[in-house]
Amino acid sequence: MDKIDNRKRWLAFVVLCLGVLMIVLDTTIVNVALPAIKQDLGFSNASLAWVVNAYLLTFGGFLLLGGRLGDIFGRRKLFLSGLALFTLASLACGLSDSQLVLVTARVIQGIGGSIVSAVGLGLMMNMFTEPAERAKAMGFYGFVAAGGGSVGVLLGGTLTGLLDWHWIFFVNIPIGIAVFALGTFLLPSGRDESASRHIDIAGAVTVTGALMLAIYAIVNGNTAGWASMQTIGLLAGSATLIILFIRVESRTKSPLVPLTLFKLRNLRTANLIGVLWAAAMFAWFFLSALYLQLVLGYSSLQVGLAFLPATMLMAIFSLGISARLVMLFGIRKPLAVGLFLAAIGLLLFATAPLSGNFLYNVLPSMILLGLGAGMAFNPMLLAAMSEVEPHESGLASGIVNTSFMMGGALGLAILASIASIQTSALLASGVAALAALNSGYHVAFLAGAVFAALGATLGAVVLSKNIKTAHDRPHMGH
Question: Which CATH number covers residue 163?
């Protein structure tokens, strides 16, 4: 491949990463602005959750369908369509002056975001087929996916503090326009001619419905009660749709998700690790931000700055170290070591006192979590995609993203529940409010550490030994 082609490929990759960054930012940038949105548009506590949940619901629900449509109709076309939808919905969010307009625009943002996320990773896998280059590209992508969240916290705090909450949405518009314009020229069309053009409507409806019911049940579990008829009914409905989906997929000629994909050991294992890792990551993100704000009294800007050491470490690892570790040691060791470091970081947060000091009680945890995320994310994605045929890479990336999304939503709901139960029990026994709150966070951090340690164990024991990097089978080379 000549230098011009190679340069164009890396420029196209930067465009992809910018598109994905915009989507990742949106999952955390909004959290910091929620109090301002609540006051301005008159949301109640219960209805305010829908500013986040409306986005999560459609984002998680449409990932598999988005990835598959990219494989069928061309990934560039779908990526640009998703991007345009997301950018227009961001404009509507920023201009919204009522609860209904904001929540509806967030629903549309979620659909656009899911298409960009699912198709982006598939495009990237097909642009970089040589193992060393793919490991390097996945390192950058891992930083964008994992580090973008903490950038969102910092940016959300700054924009809301200096301007107002509308700007957390307006900031997407120039980025969206630039990525769309550059992507039109730089991105490869990415449609595999061997992929069937048939759309499995029954499969798409059942799996999207199942995911949306499950996410709805999970994000409302704490409010409705985990043993309530609503939660149990929704989860039962989701399980029924999943069974129906499997039946449809086993019988249709061109399934949305070929069930043979789940025979791939690394894809199965990496998805399970992804669920555990996302549950631990969300524990870190949301609970440590709450600890810093509610227990230590940090402002939203200070919370963003507290995450900077972790973000910087992720960036350093992504700019080459992570790829080098994969080339030297394969996928298993960096993945397992990274997740064990993250588990230790969460354990340290589980001991953080009421009068915590940044240098002693926050910084060591942030360093370990930054190191862990920087090491583990790239090999986890490589493991998931390593055995997949090129024409199924969009779908496989949709499955990986869905696992991550479901793991994050489920993990956060479980951990918030654990924290709340512990805090309530201590308050009832007469413990001071702040001490009870901190103790609740401790128990949740401990559970997050268990998730990360389980992920590390799976990575060390179950992942296939013989894969050193992403597959370099002859038909995947140039």
Answer: 1.20.1250.20
Shared-domain flag, residues 272 and 390: yes
Q: What is the pTM of this model?
A: 0.74
Which band of pLDDT confidence, cut at 50, 70 and 90, is reported for residue 454? very high
* 85 and 18 assigned to the same domain: yes
Pick from 72, 172, 82: which is nearest to 118 by CA? Answer: 82
Residues 6+ apart with CB under 8 A from 6: none
User: Quick one: which H or E segment has residue 403?
Assistant: helix 393-428
Residues 323-358: tens digit of each pLDDT: 788 778 888 888 899 999 999 999 999 988 888 788
Q: Would you list the DSSP string of 39-104?
A: HHHT--HHHHHHHHHHHHHHHHHTHHHHHHHHHHH-HHHHHHHHHHHHHHHHHHHHH--SHHHHHH
Of 239, 255, 271, the one marking the end of a domain is 255
What residues make up the domain containing 78?
3-199+256-476
Cα–Cα distances (Å) from 347 to 10, 200, 339, 375, in that order, read 39, 45, 12, 18
The alpha carbons of the chain give a radius of gyration, in whole angstroms, of 21
Cβ proximity of 370 and 309 under 8 Å: yes
Q: Which long-range contacts (CB under 8 A, 24 or more apart) does 414-417 make?
A: 414/279, 414/447, 415/279, 415/282, 415/283, 415/287, 415/444, 415/447, 415/448, 416/222, 416/286, 416/444, 417/221, 417/222, 417/226
How far, in Å, CA of 187 to CA of 138, rounded? 17
Judge whether 436 and 426 are in contact, CB under 8 Å. yes
The Cα 308–Cα 362 span in angstroms is 12
In one-letter notation, the amino acid at residue 5 is D
* pLDDT, tens digit, 9 for 90 and up, residues 385-408: 777 776 676 677 777 777 877 787
